[in-house]
């Protein structure tokens, strides 16, 4: 009787297939992590832009009604990074504040529309904007 014991083990084909499956799995995890980092960065920029816009609205909220009226019927100002610390963390961040009577056809409106548009350069090389609009009346912000 011929008793030859066969050695159990993996052949080259099985090893190659298992390496291919592992490589596909790791590529999927890598792609998900890259996408997750991109979304996190975009969300951070969006949050900072909202914070910058809210800061500018709060500054106007501190004005008296006479100061708001003194801004005129069409007030536009550009805010730089030096004037708003939240803009500092945004690449080329800037804000534009615009006020106008509400409704727009009114000549002696007791309410003003305030819009703050924050712009910045995204890591994906395009310009992003975030705008917050509110109303300011004789007694402060209106919702």
Largest sheet: 5 strands, antiparallel
Number of strands: 5
Mean pLDDT: 81
Structural class by secondary-structure content: alpha+beta
Which word captures the global form? rod-shaped
Helix content: 40-55%
How are the strands of the largest sheet arranged?
Answer: 1-2-3-4-5
* Low-pLDDT segments, ≥5 res: none
Radius of gyration: 29 Å
**Fraction of residues in β-strands:** 25-35%
Structure, described:
There is one protein chain. With 143 residues, the protein is an alpha+beta fold. Helices cover 42% and strands 27% of the residues. Strands 1-2-3-4-5 form a 5-stranded antiparallel β-sheet, with helices on one face. β2 and β3 form a beta hairpin. The longest helix has 50 residues. The mean pLDDT is 81.
Pick out its properties.
about 140 residues, alpha+beta, rod-shaped
Summarize the structure.
By secondary structure, the chain is α+β, with helices and mostly antiparallel strands. It is built from three helices and five strands. A hairpin with an 8-residue loop joins strand 2 and strand 3 (111-121).
Question: How are the elements arranged and paired?
Answer:
Blueprint lengths: L11 H50 L3 H6 L4 E5 L5 H4 L5 E9 L8 E11 L5 E11 L2 E3 L1
Antiparallel strand pairs: 1-2, 2-3, 3-4, 4-5
């Amino acid at each position: 009787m011929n008793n030859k014991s066969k050695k159990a083990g993996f052949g080259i084909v099985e090893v190659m297939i298992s390496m291919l499956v592992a490589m596909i799995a790791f590529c999927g995890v890598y792609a998900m992590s890259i996408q997750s980092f991109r979304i996190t960065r975009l969300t951070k920029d969006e949050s900072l832009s909202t914070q910058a816009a809210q800061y500018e609205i709060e500054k106007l909220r501190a004005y008296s009604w006479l100061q708001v009226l003194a801004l005129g019927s069409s007030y536009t100002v550009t805010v730089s990074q030096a004037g708003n610390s939240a803009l500092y963390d945004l690449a080329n961040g800037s804000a534009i504040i615009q006020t106008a009577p509400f409704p727009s056809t009114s000549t002696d409106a007791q309410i003003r529309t305030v819009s703050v548009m924050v712009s910045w350069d995204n890591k994906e090389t395009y310009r992003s904007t975030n705008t917050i609009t509110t109303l300011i009346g004789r007694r402060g912000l209106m919702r």
